[in-house]
Design brief:
5-stranded mixed sheet, 8 helices, 249 residues, alpha/beta, 4-stranded parallel sheet, 12 strands
């Protein structure tokens, strides 16, 4: 090892962010005399929002620490479940998803999670909304997670919505309120009498269903239709995932 190098040991859960040819073991990095440990970690491809406790030669340090030649660094993954700072009166985390996670957004709303989503918002605007509304920004864009102004973000693992949702629930274990939000706009659902929405329903729906909800924001009407069993399975699996994440079972 060159005398100006440091050696970094990455948690296996973080190795996916390293270049493909550098995922097999400790990483050596040259010091330039000015870079912080956080900058060094990110220069190797690992976004800081994915990083948990850091130690240098066995001593806990902050990302702002300046490593010295010959140091050995342990880079942990963020702990799960990860606590999220809440505003006064807030009982659950709020989320904001980038343009590529539309299906995940709908599933999160099905579970009652306060989930903002736009299919036409650029990166600076996403960071601005996340900061202003104290929403956790969820993305698969590593560059977005490295933006210094972002207060809190998380990389979503998985390519399938089922896997993405499981990853999100295991990471944050948020309290769930299924069937309480509009999957189209994130508004809250309220129960309505059938007579109040009959004019909006197809004849077959009026004959088959008697219990309805409506979004207080956009007016979308909901009922337990033919797809209800599929959605119920998603809800049941999500509740089991959160319980397991909280109990470690």
């Amino acid at each position: 090892m060159d005398e100006t190098d440091v050696v970094l040991h990455f948690d296996p859960r973080l190795r996916m962010f390293l270049p493909a040819g550098r995922r097999g073991g400790p990483q050596r990095a040259a010091l330039d005399g000015t870079s912080t440990l956080g900058h060094l970690v990110e220069s190797l491809g690992v976004p800081l929002p994915e990083v948990g406790p850091l130690t240098v030669n066995g001593v806990p340090v902050e990302p702002s620490h300046h490593p010295a030649p010959g140091d050995t660094v342990e880079v942990s993954a963020v702990p799960r479940p990860q606590p999220v700072p809440l505003e006064p009166g807030q009982t659950a985390p709020r989320f904001l998803l980038d343009v590529h996670l539309g299906t995940l957004a709908r599933r999160m709303r099905l579970l009652g999670l306060d989930t903002a989503y736009h299919n036409d918002m650029d990166d600076p605007a996403l960071v601005e909304q996340a900061n202003a509304e104290r929403r956790v920004l969820l993305t698969q864009d590593r560059g977005l997670l490295r933006r210094r102004r972002l207060w809190l973000g998380a990389y979503v693992r998985g390519s399938r919505p089922d896997d993405q949702l499981r990853d999100l629930l295991e990471r944050f274990a948020p309290p769930l309120r299924p069937w309480s939000r509009c999957t189209a706009c994130n508004g809250l659902l309220v129960e309505v009498d059938k007579a109040d929405v009959e004019a909006l329903l197809e004849a077959g729906t009026r004959r088959s269903y008697d219990v309805y909800g409506r979004c207080a924001d956009c007016g979308q009407v909901y009922w337990r239709g033919a797809h209800g069993d599929h959605l119920a399975r998603i809800v049941d699996a999500a509740q089991a995932t959160v319980t397991a994440a909280r109990t470690g079972v």
